[in-house]
Automatic annotation (TrEMBL):
Family the UniProt entry places it in: Belongs to the DedA family.
Transmembrane portions of the chain: 21-43, 63-85, 145-168, 180-201
Cited PANTHER family: INNER MEMBRANE PROTEIN DEDA-RELATED (PTHR30353), TRANSMEMBRANE PROTEIN (PTHR30353:SF0)
Domain VTT: 41-168
Native source species: Sandaracinomonas limnophila
Keywords tagged on the record: Cell membrane, Membrane, Transmembrane, Transmembrane helix
Subcellular location: Cell membrane
Main location: membrane
Listed name of the protein: DedA family protein
One Pfam family named in its UniProt record: VTT_dom
GO CC annotation: plasma membrane
Recorded topology in the membrane: Multi-pass membrane protein
Length: 205
């Protein structure tokens, strides 16, 4: 049990992930963007803190390398999610609930998709859980390949560009901010929780 708790902490602690290096960061981003069992992994604040750690010099890679690596991981991850939904959609929809899969996550993503249409692929980049399941659902409904690729690139560009770049320049200008990582995480979690709850009640209404 202690080993499981340690693994869980390592997978969800963004500071631990970032200090492990860019390769680990890109693998986490790849998984969180398209593997249905990886929806719990950090996303928004991981990108922002990667920028912060890059701006303060903890991460040695230049901003351009951070952006390209994470952008590539996000786009490829969503592509894997799309292909998973396209070829294994029925199996996913019919699988029973488990620790790493909840049917309600797919259902709430479907409601989100119904409301925003194809632009859900762009908007969902900034929403945890929904971000993981949106490309899968796009594959299930057989969205046009060219439409998906275009929106996947646009959403990935905006998500990675905004969060990593803003974090990078904030860390560069105010390096002391690295001592307040926990407050940054709480800030993002607060925004995320508010957005999800607000969206849930809107859809329910």
């Amino acid at each position: 049990m202690d080993q499981i708790n340690l693994l869980w902490h390592q997978l969800t602690d963004s500071e631990t992930i970032i200090r492990s290096g860019l390769l680990v960061i890109t693998l986490i981003v790849f998984a969180e963007n398209g593997l249905f069992f990886a929806f719990f992994l950090p996303g928004d604040y991981l990108l922002f803190l990667t920028g912060v750690f890059g701006g303060t010099g903890v991460l040695k890679e230049p901003l351009s390398q951070l952006l390209l690596s994470i952008f590539g991981a996000a786009v490829i991850g969503s592509l894997v999610g799309y292909l998973t939904g396209r070829f294994f959609g029925k199996s996913i929809e019919n699988r029973p609930d488990s620790l790493l899969f909840k049917k309600k996550n797919l259902d709430s993503t479907r409601d989100f998709f119904d409301k925003y249409g194809v632009m859900a692929l762009v908007i969902s980049r900034f929403l945890p859980i929904v971000r993981t399941f949106t490309p899968i659902l796009a594959g299930i409904i057989k969205m046009s390949w060219f439409t998906f690729v275009g929106l996947n690139l646009l959403g990935g560009f905006l998500w990675v560009g905004i969060l990593v770049t803003s974090g990078y320049y904030l860390g560069h200008e105010f390096p002391w901010i690295i001592n307040y990582v926990q407050y940054i995480i709480l800030f993002f979690l607060g925004i995320t929780t508010f957005t999800i709850i607000r969206g849930y009640f809107k859809l329910k209404k």
